[in-house]
């Protein structure tokens, strides 16, 4: 027999009124359960707050904040700085005059900390406490505490340079020295001079060089808060292992056999995802990257295995080449990793390197991202502020990037029309700066809008914005796993990888975004979902200026598709004007066009097709130039010489002094820096200085190829 509240039984009796009553009753019970759960979580959160060290220093911190515009707070791991500092300011009334904004260098940290603070305050996430990350804003008019990535705050300052809706900005995890955080440090230094009476800046970190930051902000005070850590025993290896992967595995097994209960956190250069708490009577082995050093806390960890390495993306402005290198961590990172073992009880950290290596070879601090990244996006941002007193080459950075990196960024922006030959930001550049994309993709969208292929460009931009590898790797194993031969992915119609990405998304669109379709093709499901969301949000951003449809357009005729591909390739050529390459006359190698040409190869994963004579296209645009066993062009697409020639024409007009927005000569300083750079074998002779020679040389090579066919 059905229970009293069973809706099926009630429906059989024909009592419609009772159906409504029971549904309402069930909803009331559900709401009550949710409320009870939320109250329980809040009580747990409050209990865990009670012993946080930062609360014992509340009066000291607030005295420093009230008497100074800028305060540096060094809070060791477990001090509670990320969750409690905003709440302290809230209790002291700072949210009455504006928002307390807390920046995080990572998206996952901004979301998780905001969720935790909302639980502790007993409010709904998105109301009084919210977060804003790229492509997602969960705030409201009622939000008083806002966690956001440093990149989001930079974009907010474009429309509101004074940041006048904020009463306090907290730059958290500043020791990670992300590119955006370093830019923010320079901007905060300017802003506190203009808003000294109603604005506070707090810079917080676990291991930051507080004295250095204090000097940067005119000797501002430094408050140190101890962490809540149990003792951690450090165990060094006697020698460096031949394979840190095998050594990590052996150490993990040794811990499992000999040590007591507790999870094991292994720091490697790659990671696996961990879901939920461990089952009873079970030990978890968690493999993580450097994200677990500070941004994520994994409960239950008692043992840490530190390989001593991290995978780091680095950019060389002298070659325009990216490399993903496995490098040694710094002493600061080693300290952070060890601290993960002492969060809940005494623990052990097994370092897979001798103590002498730690003392003699490890850098004291991590190299700031600003000194190993392309600065085109950051320079575009600074230019878009349109402040007459900013000379890009003399901007006040905590640690200055090399002049060569800044010059490289200025040249890139000039070639894609973001700034003019006098260094002034253009109308196109201002629009580009508002888009949450790197400059080349933003410029591609602008050009596509003029050529009637914005819909296709939005799809490609979204696919290229994925934060993971979408396509399956090409190997014998993956070929065997595929269900059927006919499930081969689209091939880009011979034009290259950008067209293939477009075709893949359009195929998925035709299945009504069926997840099983992605699985059949071995596409990364979570990544494809992210792409779909990014495309939707980019469409909303572009809606105001769009000259054509934004929805996915499926061309039914071959001729229409080819015209779309033609227009899209032209837009890509304009957007990636600084990333063009020309095929060599006698083989399928390429020579990059630009300031420091070099001979490269197309990456083996590319779908770019040769013609009937085995020759690849004469000119290509590439997404990135990477260094592995040799320099490779990755994600390439064929372009026409007619589109390339005007770009070569612009190269001759560059005057770096004008582009920077400043005055004075920098050539001597630049030459001095460049003379110290290591010589590389793969750099070929520079493009001739004479502009006509460049154009003529390109035409002659083009005609030479035609003659060989």
TrEMBL record:
| All copies of domain Helicase ATP-binding, residue ranges | 62-226
Q: Which SMART domains match?
A: AAA (SM00382), DEXDc (SM00487), HA2 (SM00847), HELICc (SM00490)
For this UniProt entry, the molecular function terms from Gene Ontology, in alphabetical order, are: ATP binding; hydrolase activity; RNA binding; RNA helicase activity
Under CDD domains, the record lists: SF2_C_RHA (cd18791)
> What top-level branch of life does the organism fall under?
Eukaryota
Tell me which UniProt keywords the record has, alphabetically: ATP-binding, Helicase, Hydrolase, mRNA processing, mRNA splicing, Nucleotide-binding, Spliceosome
User: Which reaction is this enzyme known to catalyze?
Assistant: ATP + H2O = ADP + phosphate + H(+)
Pfam families, per this entry?
DEAD, HA2_C, Helicase_C, OB_NTP_bind, WHD_HA2
Domain Helicase C-terminal: from-to ranges: 212-386
EC number(s) stated in the UniProt entry for this protein: 3.6.4.13
- Look at the named UniProt entry and state the broad enzyme category this protein falls under: hydrolase
Of the GO CC terms on this record, one is: spliceosomal complex
What is the name of this protein?
RNA helicase
Provenance organism = Prunus dulcis (Almond)
